[in-house]
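FAQ: What does the model actually see?

It sees only this:
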Amino acid sequence: MDDALDDVFKALADPSRRALLDTLNARNGQTLRELCAGLEMARQSVSKHLTVLEEAGLVTTVWRGREKLHYLNAAPVHEIAHRWISRFDQARVQALADLKLALEETPMDAPTFVYTTYIRTTPQKLWQALTEPAFTQRYWSTEFTTDWQVGSPMTWDNHGVVIADPEQVVLEADPYSKLSYTWHSVTPELAKRFDWDDETLAKLSGEARSKVTFTIDEEAGQVVKLTVVHDGFEPGSKFAEMVSHGWPAVVASLKSLLETGEPLSEEN
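And it is asked to produce this:
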């Protein structure tokens, strides 16, 4: 953990790398060519800085056809906030807290939300945590009723609200490797549960259905890399804004459950 924190702080210490993060904070999901065009740096320099940021976990990448898209990843900053900052007086680390807030509030102009974290577990246990109600209820207050076969319907129990819809289906299920499904419908019952007003309910109900994909990659030393990609959003999507805040908290609680046996409390 200390080595990982060293990498994060070293990556953030360089102003050019901070400029790259600012660029991705303004518009996520850029190619190397796009990043070079927006910064007064040579392509080779940008590529080297991106490598450092990727190794520190502050940037994650997704391939779309032949293009490699770069995304700002808030997971390392979450780790600092949850496991390190709490040891010290909050006022003394306000600057770092402000950075955390900036990373979490990344504008969702890009059509895809990407979040990567590393968990000390096995692919088998992580798959269980993503699919079995005994796990999902603990860190997400959500359960799924499905056989996890491609094309099978999914009934959601989302914070006590049951949502059944034939378009909620499993898209891909490769055990211990990749899981993908369409997102749930929005119902008046769900709006009541979360105190959404009529305007918010109408906006969410009118959006196209999105999808989420979990990719599991086994690393050395009983560490698993989990990448969450949530896409299918329209420009200006309210749902995209909501998941950009929701997924970091859900994944952090999942990580805590697998590594310590306890999910994060709502206060955390």
